[in-house]
């Protein structure tokens, strides 16, 4: 058996170096390699690659969706605080408007009341003046009648009236004082 | 140990029948094992697939140990098949030894130098082929034989032969010695009747266990050296 190892010797070659077995072994091995590649190794490495890709993709997409979730949360937070701001602004504005309107109403009421008061005063004054004037006329006529009846003196009505006017004016001044 | 063998001649080549049967049986066993393990592959591995992936990862890691990522992918199938072919070859003779008329027909094919030499030759041819295809013939020649010093050319050429011989003969020697000792124990068992048989049983057990270990180690060493030799040819020497 060790004689196989003496490669150089032609004597051994004739004895029986199984050169055919070299070919046969190589042939078997190559066929075996082909079969294993087709039936086991190919599908297996394909599956392993697929898995590696899937894991990488899953990690990437998880990262992406995490970032998206974070973004959404930030957006929501922002929207929330914004809506709070909006709400308080609306309330403030409403308050201001209400205040303004109230003031306006009060002011207009005040001015209305003032004008009503003024006109009432004017009216009163007018009526007072009218009443005074009527009274003045009545008193004058009465005085003339009284005077004409009492004195029985022919007196010109106009002269008499001027006299009494001046007298009543002096009376009015005393009243006003 | 010049066992008789049955041979025949074809096209001027000598064929050893026992050896051929052994190689064929080994190939069939390896193929059936891989075929069985690789049925119903899933994205999420279970049972058999886990085992197959562990085996593939094991040989892939051997190759990755000495080659870069792209090259290791190219040689991973070769390493895988080589490892399990040698592993099954080494174990085959421990379990089955069919002998007919003193001619053994099924034994470890790696206990025959022609098989281990074939494997070594294939490995080295592959290594040289990878070197040539990477650098072109000129680059391959200067990288392999003229570096680091041109005067080492004879030494480098000689080294290629020693690589070849040591790679093949290491495997052959280990397995052949294991089988030889096993058959010696077997002869001893049948030499003096039942007493020696009883003594031989534990001896056989121990030696078979050790041979299983040895065969696995040798398969690992062979594949590791294969990837080392390939890496020597395709890496630029400083």
Tell the overall outline of chain B.
Answer: globular
List the quaternary state of the chains: heterodimer
Helices and strands of chain B: which structural class?
mainly alpha
Structural class of chain A: mainly alpha
How many individual β-strands of chain B? 4
Indicate the proportion of strand residues of chain A. Answer: under 5%
**Helix content bin of chain B:** over 70%
Coarse morphology of chain A: rod-shaped
Radius of gyration of chain A: 65 Å
**What separation lies between the terminal Cα atoms of chain A?**
165 Å
Mean pLDDT across every amino acid position of chain A:
82
Low-pLDDT parts of chain A are: 1-15
Biggest interface, chains and residues, is: A-B, 35 and 49 residues
- The neighbouring-strand order within the major sheet of chain B is 1-2
Function (chain B): Key component of the proton channel; it plays a direct role in the translocation of protons across the membrane.
Family (chain B): Belongs to the ATPase A chain family.
Main location (chain B): membrane
Pfam family, one (chain B): ATP-synt_A
Short description:
Chain A is an all-alpha fold and 177 residues long. Chain A is built from three helices and no strands. Chain A has one domain (29-176).
What attributes does this structure have?
heterodimer, A: 177 residues, mainly alpha, B: 238 residues, two-stranded antiparallel ribbon, 6 helices, 4 strands, globular, ion transport (chain A), membrane (chain A), ATP synthesis (chain A), transport (chain A), hydrogen ion transport (chain A)
